[in-house]
Specification:
The chain is of the alpha/beta class. Helices cover 48% and strands 12% of the residues. The chain has helices spanning 70-80, 86-98, 102-117, 122-135, 142-161, 177-185, 202-229; strands at residues 6-8, 13-19, 28-30, 35-41, 52-53, 58-64.
Length: 232
């Protein structure tokens, strides 16, 4: 095709679309509003960035011929969205989920969030990176447990060598550095440790850092859980 030509499949409705030809270096493929049940395709048949338009394109099943790994499927979506648009990512995730590929569906939704992050102002980007590093926007919840275990171990180690004096001598629970650290890290649970001790000097900084990190971790976990419940 010439640079100003296009293969138009706008609003096509068919049980099966087979896109298996040779990739064209010029022109566009337009799938806007098309509806198909089975999409049979090859990675090397689709045009590159700027050559594919699929706003409103829906499909139920993906049937790739040859190697078409998820990373290339994400490139396929990116080629059709020079500017961020959530719909192609959500459509791909839905097709993968319906075929039982839940892990790949979550990876697609994570890629969507990372792509969206690049459109946000600096404060939004910073919050996005924080969610990504801690719990991968909620799509890898196991990370939260790892972060909690690391912070708990570091806090317990520090307070084992720097015990905090009691608020009132002879009162309160016995000193336990692990429980004290856990009480600092869990913002919505009171284990009866935090108010019984009086940190001083460097201990105050350690308490502040652990408390702040506990709130950040809890907030990002809550945001990720909310996102998963909405299945975005």
């Amino acid at each position: 095709m010439e640079a100003d030509q296009e293969l138009s499949l706008r609003r096509v409705q068919t049980p099966e679309l087979r896109f298996l030809g040779e990739r064209q270096e010029r022109g566009r493929v337009v799938l806007s509003g098309a509806r198909v049940v089975n999409l049979v395709d090859r990675y090397d048949s689709w045009p590159g960035p700027g050559g594919l338009v699929m706003a409103g394109f829906t499909y139920e099943n993906l049937i790739p011929l040859g190697s078409f790994p998820l990373a290339r499927r994400l490139d396929w979506v990116a080629a059709a969205t020079p500017e961020y648009a959530p719909e192609p990512y959500e459509r791909l995730a839905g097709a993968l989920r319906s075929s039982g590929e839940d892990a790949d569906a979550r990876a697609v939704l994570l890629a969507k969030q990372r792509r969206r992050r690049e459109t946000l102002p600096p404060a939004g980007k910073a919050w996005g990176y924080l969610q990504d590093w801690t719990v991968a926007y909620g799509y890898r919840p196991g990370r939260a447990a790892v972060w909690m275990a690391v912070l708990w171990a570091l806090g317990g180690f520090y307070f084992s060598y720097r015990p905090v004096p009691p608020l009132k001598e002879g009162e309160g629970p016995a000193w336990n550095p692990e429980l004290y650290t856990l009480d600092l890290l869990l913002p919505v649970i009171d284990l009866g440790q935090g108010a019984a001790w009086r940190p001083t000097g460097g201990q105050q900084w350690a308490v502040a850092v652990l408390t702040l990190l506990g709130w950040i971790l809890a907030t990002t976990v809550a945001a990720g859980a909310s996102r998963l419940l909405r299945r975005q």
